[in-house]
Design a protein that fits this description.
single chain, binds adenosine-5'-diphosphate, 5 helices, Rossmann fold, alpha/beta
Length: 150
C-alpha cells in the first residue's frame, strides 16, 4: 500500500522551512499532498490563488508532490486521498504544545490517522510565516525566506 501523507497548513506564505519538511518527507512517504487550508474566519495575507501558483510551481518537477486547497476538517479531508499520515514540522516547544493538541484531536476524529513530525533543520528554525507577513507589510524583502520569488 502506498504511503500517502498530507502536509496541511495555512502556508501564508509557504516558506523554506515548509519546503524543507516536504523534501525530507519524501524519504518517508511515496506521495505528499501539500494542503493549503482555507479558513473562512481567518483572512489570509497572501491570496490563496497566488500561494497555489507559487507552491505548485515550486514542486512542478516532483511527481510525488501535489498541491490542493481545502475547507473542512483535516481528519476527514485525508480520506479523499487515502492518506494515513499527517506530516507536520516542529521548531520549538511552542510548536510542540500546539501540535500535540491538534494531533490528539485528529486521532480522536480519525483513529486511522498518524501524525508524523519532523524537527526543523537548524537553518530554517527561525522562519515563521507570521513574522514574514509583518516584514512584507512594511516593504521588507522576504524572498530569502521563500523557495520561490514573489
Ligand atoms: P498552521 O496554520 O496549521 O499552523 P503553518 O502554515 O503555519 O500552519 O505551518 C504548517 C506546518 O509547518 C506546521 O506543522 C508548522 O509547525 C510547520 N512549520 C512552520 N514553519 C516551519 C519551519 N520554519 N520549519 C519547520 N516547520 C515549520
Amino acid at each position: 500500500m502506498k504511503r500517502v501523507a498530507l502536509f496541511p497548513g495555512s502556508f501564508d506564505p509557504f516558506t523554506k522551512g515548509h519546503y524543507d519538511i516536504v523534501i525530507r518527507g519524501l524519504k518517508l512517504f511515496d506521495e505528499i499532498i501539500v494542503a493549503i487550508g482555507q479558513n473562512t474566519k481567518k483572512q489570509r495575507y497572501f491570496p490563496l490563488e497566488l500561494m497555489i501558483e507559487k507552491v505548485t510551481g515550486t514542486f512542478e518537477k516532483e511527481d510525488k508532490i501535489s498541491v490542493v486547497t481545502y475547507n473542512e476538517l483535516t481528519a476527514s479531508f485525508v480520506k479523499k486521498f487515502d492518506a494515513r499520515y499527517l506530516l507536520r514540522g516542529l521548531r520549538n516547544t511552542t510548536d510542540f504544545e500546539y501540535e500535540n493538541s491538534i494531533a490528539q484531536m485528529n486521532k480522536y476524529l480519525n483513529s486511522e490517522l498518524e501524525s508524523v513530525f519532523l524537527i526543523t533543520s537548524p537553518e530554517y528554525a527561525a522562519i515563521n510565516s507570521s513574522i514574514i507577513r509583518e516584514v512584507h507589510r512594511y516593504d521588507g524583502d522576504i524572498n530569502v525566506f521563500l523557495p520561490y520569488t514573489l
